[in-house]
Amino acid sequence: MYETGTALAVRAFHVMPGMPPPEGERHSHDYRLDVVVRREDLDERGMVVDLDLLEEGLRRAAAQVEDQDLERIQPADAQAVTVEVFARWLHGELADALGALPGATLAVRVWENPDAFGGYTAPLGASSSS
Q1: How far apart are CA 130 and CA 128, in angstroms?
Q2: What confidence tens digit (pLDDT) does each residue in 69-87 have?
Q3: Which of 26, 62, 64, 68 has the fewest CB atoms in 10 Å of its CB?
C-alpha cells in the first residue's frame, strides 16, 4: 500500500458541555491535523495523490477554523465538536477538494495534544460531501 500525507497545526476553540472547567468552558487547543491518502497502485504520474492538491485542501480547511470556535462545524446531531467530529468534518472537506480517487482511502487524525487523537477513515472512490 502506497501512502502520501501531510500535516499542519491549527489553534481553535471549543466547549464540552456538562464537563467541569476547563473542558466545560470555552478553551483552545493547538490541534495537529494529519492526513494520509493510501492506494495499492500509483496513478499514471507515479503518485498516490497530488501532494500540492492535498496540502492546499488542508490549508483551506484549516483556515476555516483557525482561531475560531469549532461550533461553526458542529453537525446538528452532535452535542459538541470532539476530535472525532472534527476529523469527520476535515475528511469531508478534503474529500470535496480531492474529488473521486478510485481505490484511494483518506485517513484523518486530529491530535488535541501530543498523546491524544481522534480519527476518521473512508474511501475516496466516489464523490463525497461533508
Answers
A1: 7
A2: 999 999 989 888 999 999 9
A3: 26
